[in-house]
Amino acid sequence: xxxxxxxxxxxxxxxxxxxxGIFFIAILLNQSVxxxxxxxxxxxxxxxxxxxxxxxxxxxxFIRNESNIxxxxxxxxxxxxxxxxxVVDIESNxxxxxxxxxxxxxxxxxxxxxxxxxxxxxxxxxx
Amino acid sequence: MNTDGQLYTIEGVAASVLVLTTVxxxxxxTTVLTPGETHIYDMQLEQLGNDVLAVMDLNETWGAGSHKYxxxxxxxxxxxxxSGGEDQFKNHxxxxxxxxxxxxxxxxxxxxxxxxxxxxxxxxxxxxxTNDYNRERAVKVxxxxxxxxxxxxxxxxxxxxxxxxxxxxxWRG
Lengths: 127, 173
Fold this sequence. Notes:
The complex is a heterodimer of chains A (127) and B (173).
Chain A lengths: L8 H37 L2 H17 L4 H15 L3 E5 L6 E6 L4 E6 L6 H7 L1
Chain B lengths: L5 H51 L16 H7 L5 H13 L9 E10 L5 E8 L9 E10 L12 E12 L1
Antiparallel strand pairs in B: 1-2, 1-4, 3-4
Helix pairs in contact in B: 1-3, 2-3
């Protein structure tokens, strides 16, 4: 068997360093992509718009003060469960604070809110 | 048989495996980029759709009318389903959603309205749309809408004031 030629050891050493460097950069690139994806997914998953919309709708129900508020609240609860997979409960109150509960299995939200009964001054302000 | 250079051969095979592995890793990471990007576009489209529906659900006039709280355009469109409400909704929605700083965007949508009857039955009717949905990459945005159907203008729904859910499936075409 021929004697091992030990020329060019620096070249081999540099090649090893560079290849290990490329390997680590590839790992970094991989992880940075995952960060962007999970951030966007977290924003998509969090029901920000759902909760804002629900709060606005409850306020509209309060302001309109129809005679069948209980039926309207049952509409929201039933539709929310079947179309959005979210449990919603609303407790109306003629004088005291209203309660809003929201739970979609991942995010849970509850609040107690006292509405101002007569919005007319604001209407004239915007007129 | 000449047995010289066996170590060189082994080293060559090892080096080729190393190079191939690195190339595979680099190529596979660049293909992962695409789904990451599309999630960001989905997020922006969903935000846009929710904003448009919120704007349409604000009343434009602030007068002291006969009704304590004036109806929003969105409520009026849904209450006049079957008598032009669909087209009015479509025009208003596209006008708001397609605004860009240069020219016009090209968004497509289809929408439904889900209602609940006093019997507990939950049903869905079709509302305005630009195109049929053929499994494009779409996002869904929703809006609770408080409507008054006391006169029974929409035959599928109970004749009473009620809250329905407007669902819009939105995609860029």
